[in-house]
Design a protein that fits this description.
Layout: H1 3-22, H2 32-49, H3 52-56, H4 58-67, H5 73-90, H6 95-98, H7 105-115, H8 120-168, H9 175-228, H10 233-241, H11 246-258
Helix pairs in contact: 2-8, 2-9, 5-9, 5-10, 7-9, 8-9, 9-10
Length: about 260
């Protein structure tokens, strides 16, 4: 579970509703036709823009965003260095027994190909193709939320224009003009809330999560290739540590010196 995502999402909407409450009764900000227009039209546009197969994956993407957290990179590096030490000490074939305890299928496939004696260029090509496929899937998920974020405010503006036209069409009662204008503006507010309180932050977070996973799997690829080529475990460690942020790299070096 990614507590940062959950805290950010809940905190954002608490602040939004807190501001609404300060402005008066929440009922003032409720207009059912406007809600239907924003939510309904935004979703139907999504069906118009995106293939059905992609839309079916929207909920799993959201679930993964909220409840999946990438393992620490330094733990992955330690794991790959451990594989390198085992391969150097007992031979690369001995790694097959170590794979039984590994949960990451990407690691298992890479090491298994190395154990099977697959050509290094082919191993790298297969793993990089899988990484590119992963990036494409992430881009699809991100794109769907960007679509919602783009069209929800537009639908809000359409609703506002509809409300303004209806209001200006009947100016016989000046007392109703203010209320009519307020209702007309609600759709713009709803559209902005959907876009900036949900869709666009989700898209940005998916982009961040995708970048994290790309780095994670790139480390795996580099580690597998180093193990396959028989690099010294120390060399493997130094290669993979280049992916760590400077402060984590320094902490890791300090821990080694202390040990």
């Amino acid at each position: 579970m990614d507590l940062g995502v959950i805290f950010g999402f809940i905190g954002t909407w608490i602040l939004i509703f807190w501001t609404l409450i300060l402005g008066g009764s929440l009922l003032v900000y409720v207009d059912v036709p406007s809600v239907i227009l924003i939510l309904g039209a935004s979703v139907t546009v999504l069906f118009f823009v995106c293939p059905m197969g992609n839309i079916k994956n929207l909920l799993p993407v959201m679930k993964r965003l909220f409840f999946y957290k990438s393992p620490p990179i330094d733990d992955l590096i330690d794991q790959m260095v451990g594989f390198a030490e085992t391969a150097r000490r007992d031979g690369i074939l001995s790694l097959e027994n170590s794979l039984k305890e590994v949960e990451d299928e990407f690691v298992v496939r890479g090491i298994q190909m190395a154990v099977d004696g697959t050509d290094p260029e082919l191993i790298e090509q297969i793993m990089e193709n899988e990484l590119e496929s992963l990036m494409d899937r992430h881009e699809v998920g991100k794109g769907m939320f960007e679509t919602l974020g783009k069209y929800a405010p537009a639908m809000g503006m359409i609703g506002t224009l509809i409300g303004l036209v209806a209001m200006l069409n009947d100016l016989s009662d000046p007392a109703k003009i203010g209320a009519g204008l307020a209702v007309a503006l609600l759709t713009t507010m709803y559209g902005s809330m959907v876009a900036n309180g949900f869709a666009l932050p989700m898209a940005d977070r998916l982009g961040t999560r995708s970048a994290e996973e790309v780095i994670y799997k790139t480390i795996i690829i580099k580690g597998v290739m180093s193990i396959q080529s028989g690099d010294n475990p120390r060399v493997v460690e130094q290669k993979l540590k280049t992916f760590l942020p400077p402060h984590l790299r320094k902490m890791s070096d300090d821990e080694e010196q202390a040990a």
